[in-house]
Structures are given as structure tokens and as C-alpha cells.
Design brief:
Layout (H helix, E strand, L loop, with lengths): L4 E10 L5 H9 L5 E9 L5 H4 L6 E6 L5 H11 L4 E5 L3 E3 L3 H11 L4 E8 L5 H11 L9 E3 L6 E5 H7 L10 H11 L4 E11 L5 H22 L5 H4 L7 H15 L4 H6 L1 H19 L30
Parallel strand pairs: 1-2, 1-4, 2-3, 6-9
Antiparallel strand pairs: 4-8, 5-9, 6-8, 7-9
Helix pairs in contact: 5-12, 8-12, 10-12
């Protein structure tokens, strides 16, 4: 690719977005500069007037109506001019060679959706580490390059042609929108590939209450996705009682992967009691959603307390 890559980096943001300026500062310091950086912000606290004078070269867009991250990414992609689209969340801090590494991988795998590795910025205490292991265990930096079932939308690169073939993210999903897009793209012959050397660090809010609520919501979204899309693990949706066994199964899978791939096993074992608690919350969310008698076309998936939204009440439709 050229000295200034034909890549548009798109950053969805909502509400206060306390880490957005650091995220953008990291993107502006890339060894391979993108052709443009687009922030699409929704909700209150529009950061454009405050940050634009300090961050020349960043294009800010804002809507008052709240959008989930997938919808904000779609709106940013429509306004992008690059032949390639990179997606980074507003609480992700890219390493200086992040984009250069992804661009080089794209030359070898032009039709793949490339996922970089996600590290943990360690700013949220021990619960930040727990969230990191559970949420992003498939894309840690120690893992070898290779094919993925899907890739997290917090660190992603794909061509505009591939993006248009997939039709973009589901705008009504709080979580699992990347997994749902992955199913559609794989059906069209595209594959997801991990590029572990393209690293970015995720800043987690941490804290017991926030972490368990987030994992519970992610479990609900995972159950919805398996019911409607048919990813591995669908048996636990057909037989919800199996969801109660998922903490042990997932813990064993994570432990085995770290041991075989020589990951941060000592750190994992140190926080393993809290990981089991977190996995229990995730599985309860999965069980709650799996045992619902009806599954609408999807009202809007779970809520996220980091985005100033309330946790769903018992019996409340997902996200409403």
C-alpha cells in the first residue's frame, strides 16, 4: 500500500467516551498513516467541538439519537472514502505499527477480514483482566496467526468490497454484531484471520458490578446469536440446562488454550476464581435468554452500563 494507506479508520463513540482522545492520539501516531480517521458519535456530550481543534485531520460526525456501535460504524463507513475500512473502538489504544501490520497482512490475504490482537490496558484493576480473558481470549497477542470463526469489531480491517458484500453490521445489536456479520461473510466465501502482531490495548472500566452486568449481557447476546444464526454451541440454546455447565467448559477451554499456546498462564491462574465468577454471570445471561419461549426478530440486544444505559429488568425484552 502507499505511504499514506487508502484506509479509513472508523471509531464509533457514545456519550462521554472518556478514552476517545487517547484513542485518536494513538491513531494519529501510526507509522503508516491512514487516509482519514472518522469518529461517529451519538448521544450526549458531542466531543467534536472540544477535540477537533486539538486533533486536526480527524473528521467528527454526531447524532443526538443513541446508536449501538454497529449502527455508528455503518454511518461512519458510508462517509468513508478509503478502499479499506479499519474499525477501532473508542476505548482501544492502537500500537504505533498497528495499521502498518494489518496493511501488510492485507496484501497477502486481500479477501480476508483481518483481526488484530487485543491486549489489556490494565487500568480497571483485576476485573479488567477478567473481562479481557473472557471477552477477547480468542485474539490475544500470544496466539499464532490463523483463521478465526469471527473477529471482534474493536480491532478489524477489511476491504470496502468485502464490507459491501456483507452489508455492514446489524445496527440493532448491542453485542455479537461482529459474530453475526462473520456468519454472513463466511457464507459468501470470506474468512476471518488473526494477525496477532497488529496489537491494540483495550481500556476496561473494571469493577465488580459493571463487570458482572456486562458479562451477563454478553451471555444473553451469545444465546440470541446461536439461536438465530446457528454458531457452535447451539445445543445449549435448544437445551437451556446445558448453559449451567458452560462456566466449567469455557474455563477448561481457556486454560487448555493458554497452556498449549504459551500464553499468560500464570496471570490467568492468579485471577481464576474471579474468572469462574465472571463465567457464571455470562452463563446465567445465556441461560436466561435461551429459556425464553419466543425469539422475536431481535428487538435490540443487551444494554451496556459503560454507555450510560440501564441493566434490563427481569422479564424485560432484550434491550428494550
Amino acid at each position: 500500500m502507499s505511504e499514506r494507506a487508502p484506509i479509513s479508520v472508523i471509531v464509533p463513540a457514545y456519550g462521554p467516551s472518556p478514552h476517545l482522545e487517547r484513542c485518536l492520539a494513538a491513531l494519529l501516531c501510526q507509522t503508516l498513516p491512514p487516509s482519514e480517521i472518522i469518529v461517529f458519535h451519538t448521544g450526549s456530550d458531542d466531543p467534536g467541538p472540544r477535540l477537533a481543534p486539538r486533533l486536526p485531520g480527524v473528521r467528527f460526525f454526531h447524532e443526538d439519537a443513541r446508536q449501538f456501535a454497529g449502527g455508528a460504524r455503518n454511518r461512519g463507513a458510508v462517509r468513508a472514502t478509503g478502499d479499506w475500512l479499519a474499525f477501532v473502538d473508542c476505548d482501544v489504544l492502537a500500537e504505533p505499527d498497528w495499521l502498518d501490520t494489518l496493511a501488510r497482512a492485507a496484501q497477502t490475504h486481500p479477501d480476508a477480514v483481518l483481526s488484530g490482537a487485543l491486549g489489556c490496558a490494565r487500568e480497571g484493576g483485576v476485573w479488567a483482566i477478567v473481562l479481557w480473558f473472557i471477552e477477547f481470549g480468542s485474539v490475544l497477542a500470544h496466539r499464532p496467526p490463523g483463521e478465526l470463526l469471527s473477529g471482534p469489531s474493536a480491532n478489524l480491517l477489511l476491504s470496502r468490497r468485502t464490507w459491501e458484500a456483507g452489508g455492514g453490521f446489524r445496527a440493532d445489536l448491542f453485542a455479537a454484531e461482529d459474530g453475526e456479520l462473520g456468519v454472513r461473510l463466511r457464507a459468501k466465501g470470506h474468512r476471518f484471520r488473526l494477525v496477532p502482531s497488529a496489537r491494540a490495548d483495550h481500556v476496561f472500566a473494571g469493577g465488580l458490578g459493571h463487570s458482572l452486568a456486562r458479562l451477563h449481557a454478553l451471555g444473553r447476546a451469545a444465546a440470541w446469536l446461536r439461536r438465530h444464526v446457528g454458531l457452535p454451541g447451539s445445543a445449549a440454546v435448544r437445551y437451556p440446562g446445558l448453559a449451567l455447565l458452560l462456566p466449567v467448559a469455557r474455563f477448561g477451554q481457556m486454560l487448555r488454550r493458554l497452556a498449549v499456546e504459551r500464553g499468560p498462564l500464570a496471570l490467568f491462574l492468579t485471577v481464576s476464581p474471579l474468572i469462574l465468577i465472571g463465567l457464571a454471570s455470562w452463563s446465567l445471561g445465556f441461560f436466561r435468554e435461551a429459556r425464553r419461549p419466543t425469539y422475536p426478530a431481535f428487538e435490540t440486544a443487551c444494554t451496556d452500563e459503560t454507555s450510560d444505559t440501564k441493566r434490563p429488568r427481569r422479564g424485560q425484552p432484550l434491550g428494550k
